[in-house]
Amino acid sequence: MVETASPTVWRRWLAFELVRLRKEAGLEQKDVAKALRCTVAKVSYYETAERPVVLRDLDEVLLPLFKVPKSQWPDYIDAAKHSRTKGWWESYSEIVPSWFSLYVGLEQGANQVQTYAAQAVPGLLQTSDYVHALLRRGTTERTDDEIEQMATVRLARRAVLEREPDPLRLWAVLDEAVLRRLVGGREVMRGQLEHLVKMAGKPKITIQVLPFDRGAHPGVIGPFTVIGFAWSGDPGVAYVEHRAGGFYLEQPHEIEAHEVAFAHLSALALAPDESVTFIERLAEEYR
Predict the structure, then answer these.
(1) What is the pTM of this model?
(2) pLDDT profile of the chain (287 residues), mean per 10
(3) Regarding the domain delimited by 88-285, which CATH topology (the fold level of the hierarchy) does it fall under?
(4) Residue extents of the structural domains in the chain
(5) Which of 94, 147, 224, 244 is deepest in the core (most CB within 10 A)?
(6) SS3 209
(7) CB neighbours of 254 closer than 8 A, spacing ≥ 6?
(8) Can you say how many angstroms the Cα of residue 179 is from the centroid of all Cα atoms in its chain?
């Protein structure tokens, strides 16, 4: 059973389990729909985590239908209850669009994130000054209050790196351009680079730098993130963001393509210790 504080990931785990249990029972979605007296579309919503499962549907129909042993029922019922709660980020729905709220929910419940950054420091590794400088230079017109709220959300996301008892495992490959782009001025950049050095010293955080002299590489297409989860059977999610939203790629071949690309980028990049030395040297240049 999954353990997470993210209702998004509770929903995802339960959805995967419902698919597994249905297939093991030799049933199709139409059979489940008949038992629930609902449309096949509703069953599909449950199985893709688009909607939280109704508790009555679960304990009165689905668990008996799938012949789940009574001793295991509490796990599924607890998951359904947790999946219907609200994540802290959902209280910022006025400024966090639904497409990105999903990302935050997945990130907050993940056990591993691998990310390639081509232009800016990944959100989980940004300092407050860097965040504000980025938001003020964005293409979206925002009020000062909106900028503060967005900064609050982004900075709050970092708590997952200190999560107890199991912090998120973060592996970031940063293009050299990320470190050389002067965001917010020399003092802000120096603080940001010093923060990267500090974070790289944590046991579950790996930071690598991909220098310009490596030439062409798999990341020239653009930045991406691969999110992994703690339970077996879930291949994870590859995420690619654009100006108006984000793509959540969940087909096995899509995830594999991004995992292979990340492996190649990691192999081309400086080793973690060399990367820290590289970042420290750049930080000195900003003095």
Answers:
(1) 0.94
(2) 81 96 98 97 96 96 97 96 95 95 97 98 98 89 92 97 95 98 97 98 98 97 97 93 95 97 98 98 95
(3) Endonuclease; Chain A (3.30.870)
(4) 7-83, 88-285
(5) 224
(6) strand
(7) 238
(8) 22
